[in-house]
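Protein modeling request. Please complete all fields; requests missing the sequence field cannot be processed.
Requester role: graduate student
Desired output: 3D structure, C-alpha cell encoding
Chains: 1
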Amino acid sequence: MAEDLTIIHSTNKKEQYDSLVPQINALLSGETDLVANLANICAALKEQFNWFWVGFYLVKDGELVLGPFQGPVACTRIAKGKGVCGAAWEQAKALIVPDVDAFPGHIACSSLSRSEIVLPLFKAGNIVGVLDVDSENLDHFDETDVQYLQQIINLIKF
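Delivered output (158 residues):
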C-alpha cells in the first residue's frame, strides 16, 4: 500500500476511527518489523487526530522504555506503577485520565498535557508495552477511544 492516509475532517470521532482503522491495518499488512509498525501507528493517529503526543513504551528489563512516538520529547523510562503509563501496566487495563493534574503521581513530561489515555499491549497474556496518548484538552478521551485504540493495537504482531 502507498504510505498515504485519507484524513477524515469530521467532528465525529467514530467516523474518524472507522476510516483510520482499515488504513492502519493496510499499513501494517505484510510488514514484520515491530518498530516500523509502531512508528506508522503513531504517525497515523497523530495525523488524523492531531493529539499532543502519541507513543509507545515497551517493557524492557522491568521498566517501560520509550519507543516510537510523535510529539515533543518524552520521558525515557517509567517504573511499574508510576504515572499513568506505569499504573496501566500494573493494573493491566486501559486508563482514561480526564485531568492529569488530578492523577496521583502523574509524571509531567510536558506541562501542556491535560488529559491522557493509556492502553496496555499484550503478547501471550503478558504486558509488553503500552500505547500512551496525551491531549492538550481536559477530558478529551472516552470509551470510544478505548474501543478503537484497542482495535488498532490488536493489529500489532509481536
